[in-house]
């Protein structure tokens, strides 16, 4: 859980401290600091930040009843669902901000941009970046290679992401690099599939957007490229349409002829 809290936006010390407050029954800052192995000075700063975010509350209790007794401040962990509220608020802000930032970025230069992304992480990042492109997408996919890198789990997430965004993908695949019954045409998954003629084998994947093209290699070369160029994207889209027009709706392998 600690790592998941860090992934959700808390720093490591905040995550440890918050988990201890959740586990303890109304601890003081000092008690939570001791359990989470954080200095008291840092613990008070962390408490202020988590209270500000709505994850913790401070309550004054006491006095103890002794002659010199005084009240004390104890911590209560609020509903962790606050993290979901934060995410929803942040997403709403970003949904409004990102298109504006892209517009500013587009005005900054008319020159095409090429980005090189290395390794399996680069391939995954390139693939998921296409989820932010407008519909429809055009794709030339090597299914076997995508199921190796970035892998089955990532592909399931990607398909779910397209479905959530209603992002249509028109795709041509090589029967030689395909799996039987894999990723057919599906209205529910916003996908139209066709298959290249036997002998045309694609070991790389290309996804073509309105102004950008993503190219992803197999594990053999292990890289991805993002090409931001409206002209290049239009040319690749035209070449795709030529390939689409000569492709079939059912896979045919060389041995089937």
TrEMBL record:
UniProt organism field: Kribbella shirazensis
Lineage: Bacteria, Bacillati, Actinomycetota, Actinomycetes, Propionibacteriales
Designated name of the protein: Sugar-specific transcriptional regulator TrmB
InterPro entries: TrmB-like (IPR051797), Tscrpt_reg_TrmB_N (IPR002831), WH-like_DNA-bd_sf (IPR036388)
Transcription regulator TrmB N-terminal domain boundaries: 8-63
Gene3D superfamilies, sorted: Winged helix-like DNA-binding domain superfamily/Winged helix DNA-binding domain (1.10.10.10)
Pfam families on file: TrmB
């Amino acid at each position: 859980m600690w790592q998941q809290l860090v992934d959700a936006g808390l720093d490591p010390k905040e995550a440890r401290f918050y988990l201890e407050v959740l586990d303890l029954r109304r601890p003081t800052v000092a008690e939570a600091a001791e359990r989470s192995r954080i200095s008291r000075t840092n613990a008070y700063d962390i408490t202020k930040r988590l209270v500000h975010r709505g994850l913790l509350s401070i309550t004054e209790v006491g006095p103890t009843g002794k002659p010199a007794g005084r009240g004390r401040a104890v911590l209560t962990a609020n509903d962790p669902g606050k993290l979901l509220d934060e995410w929803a608020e942040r997403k709403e802000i970003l949904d409004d901000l990102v298109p504006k930032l892209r517009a500013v970025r587009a005005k900054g230069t008319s020159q095409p941009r090429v980005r090189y992304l290395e390794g399996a992480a680069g391939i995954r990042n390139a693939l998921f970046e296409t989820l932010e492109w407008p519909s429809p997408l055009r794709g030339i996919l090597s299914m076997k290679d995508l199921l190796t890198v970035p892998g089955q789990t990532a592909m399931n997430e990607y398909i779910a992401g397209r479905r959530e965004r209603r992002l249509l993908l028109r795709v041509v695949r090589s029967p030689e690099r395909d799996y039987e019954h894999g990723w057919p045409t599906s209205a529910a998954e916003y996908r139209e599939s066709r298959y290249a003629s036997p002998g045309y084998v694609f070991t790389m994947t290309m996804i073509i957007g309105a102004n950008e093209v993503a190219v992803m290699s197999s594990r053999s070369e292990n890289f991805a490229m993002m090409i931001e160029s409206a002209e290049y994207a239009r040319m690749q889209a035209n070449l795709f349409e030529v390939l689409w027009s000569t492709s079939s709706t059912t896979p045919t392998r060389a041995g089937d002829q």
